[in-house]
Amino acid sequence: MERRSFLSLAGALAATARAQSNSRPNFLLVVLDDAGYGDFGCFGQKLIRTPRIDGLAQQGTRYTDFYCGAPVCAPSRCVLMTGLHGGHAAIRANAGTVSLRDEDVTLAEILKSAGYRTGGFGKWGLGDAATPGVPTRQGFDEFFGYLHQVHAHSYYPEFLWDNETRFDLHGKYSAAVIAERSFAFLEKQSAQQPFFLYACYTLPHSKFEGPDTAPYQEQPWPEPAKHYAAMLTRADGYIGRLLDILREKGLDRNTIVIAATDNGAHSGGDKGYELFRSNDGLRGEKGTVYEGGIRVPCVVRWPGKVKAGAASSTPWGFVDILPTFAALARAQTPAGLDGVSMAGFLQGGPAPPHPYLYWEQNSFNMQQQKWNPAGHSRALRDGRWKAVRRAGGAVELFDLTAGPGEHTDLASSHPDLARRYGALLDAARTEPRSHAGASMRFRTEWKAN
Fold it and tell me: Can you tell me whether residue 316 is helix, strand or coil?
């Protein structure tokens, strides 16, 4: 079905749903940038303070086997927005910024067509200015923040984007300005119209900088580590303010709140990753398809629906968000999604049958404008089993019930299973479309403006 035909049909079905009931939930989806599996207190962090996220976990459920869409930013967010895993999604690498296509149908478009007010605030990474991928051309009524992922590497840039208009910062800390705009969006919402707020905050992605290192300035840590901790605590405070607004406006009981991160953290160095055990002992880090690159913390709260103070080890992830939100919004979903609806599961029902989860990490040479086969890795999870194939290598096989550390390769003792998963790794992907011409041109544009 053509994109416009799908959205027209979805709008008609949503109108029927609205006439039948106005009890559909609101959605507040918070995605932090580069925070690791072990960076929240409720996931074992001992040194960094995250009291509001920890409180959210007490009021909801921690999902201990939750996965992002890819081990780096842009493809992970593409999976989140489209419900297609990394072998099918339009954006497969951090290649400057490749744009979503006009024919791609996003989570925001589906919810908007269902009558939701939609707002995004933070880092987008799925299309730079004047491309089909800008958020306001992909279903968002409002967007404020960074379009280009490299632009988002500084917290003191010259400007951000207010919808499709340049917004000069004049030396202000971008994270604070973005957070205030997300608060303002939430303040405008009411029970008369459901909303979707995508708080894609850039914290704690590098550079590690901020107005101060409170409350960690007295700690005997390297300065980057103090900033990393302070940035996480700052993000926790922003989440707390969103929760306070929901409560003040009487919207908290009918709002599903999800807090997660876009990929794993780095490891080592003076940034504090080892000090804080940001990846909690998982193998690998950001940029790898081992658990340290793709397993992320996730907390979900929905009072009276999602069990409070609980933990679940059922595997699911970014790829399932679109079909889950669409089902809860009683909206039509596109055919051919890789994710499944977890709507019933979140409310205490059984987990639905889930096809294997799939990820890939691709390397794209921006100077030569071509893919680098040596940088291509793939992985899948099928229940207890995790299969990994690094570029040019044999299939590695891990039993995650023995622990998430992926220390023992069992491929030689389960050769039939390794062959089966090797075939699935090949079948799971289509060849990515060309990224040529995208990255350098976009970088020049935002630096020149």
Answer: strand
Which residues of 318-407 form beta strands (DSSP E)? 357-361, 364-365, 370-371, 377-382, 385-389, 396-399
Q: How far, CA to CA in Å, does 57 sit from each of 12, 165, 303, 343?
A: 37, 37, 12, 19
| Residues contacting 8, CB < 8 A, separation 6+ | none
Shared-domain flag, residues 300 and 368: no
CA angle 70, 1, 28 (to 5 degrees): 45
The CATH number of the domain where 425 resides is what?
3.30.1120.10
Number of domains composing the chain: 2
Regarding whether 416 and 292 lie in a shared domain, the answer is no
Same domain, 200 and 344: yes
130-163 pLDDT, tens digit per residue, is 999 999 999 999 999 999 988 999 999 999 999 9
Closest CA to 228 of 205, 251, 246: 205
Q: Same domain for 331 and 393?
A: no
Q: List helix spans (H) across 83-222.
A: 107-113, 174-187
Q: Which residues contact 23 (CB under 8 A, 6 or more apart)?
A: 254
- Specify whether 257 is located in the same domain as 405: no
Q: pTM of the prediction?
A: 0.93
The CA distance from 257 to 262, in Å, is 16
